[in-house]
């Protein structure tokens, strides 16, 4: 009886959940990897991932606007021939304001980022508070007697 071959199972690689999104340019991807590395991130909540992604895209937008100002200049000719400011200048300023807001939101939600250091610090703090609470109860009981 001839042997039949089993069809080859196509193995699909599992994407790294901490890998930088594909739509980021070099600047955004660098910020992504640096942020994760500096904070020893091992897991991201979806909401934190979304904020981090927006931060990186904003970095990319600022980089593009700065490149345009570098090539076109800060001033340009308006529709009537008058000298006007390049529209990329105020847009870059607005993107920087957005970046500041996003970074604040990212920092406010850092409890969603779990690193080995964060977990250990939280466990230590919880243990210390539990010990203090137990000591306070003992003192109250001793006073009551």
List keywords for this structure.
145 residues; mainly alpha; two-stranded antiparallel sheet; 4 helices; 62% helix
Q: What does the model show?
A:
By secondary structure, this protein is mainly α. It has a domain at 26-113. 62% of the residues lie in helices and 9% in strands. It has helices at residues 26-38, 46-72, 88-108, 116-144, and strands at 41-44, 75-77, 83-85, 113-115. A two-stranded antiparallel ribbon has the order 1-4. Strands 2-3 form a two-stranded antiparallel sheet. It is flat and about 90 Å long. 10% of the residues are buried. The mean pLDDT is 86.
Mean pLDDT over all positions: 86
Q: Give the % helix.
A: 55-70%
Give start-end ranges of low-pLDDT stretches: none
Number of helices: 4
> Strand count, sense and closure of the main sheet?
2 strands, antiparallel
Strand order of the largest sheet: 1-4
Shape: flat
Order of helices and strands: HEHEEHEH
- Number of DSSP-assigned strands: 4
Hey, roughly how much beta strand do the residues contain?
5-15%
- How large, in whole angstroms, is the Cα Rg? 26 Å
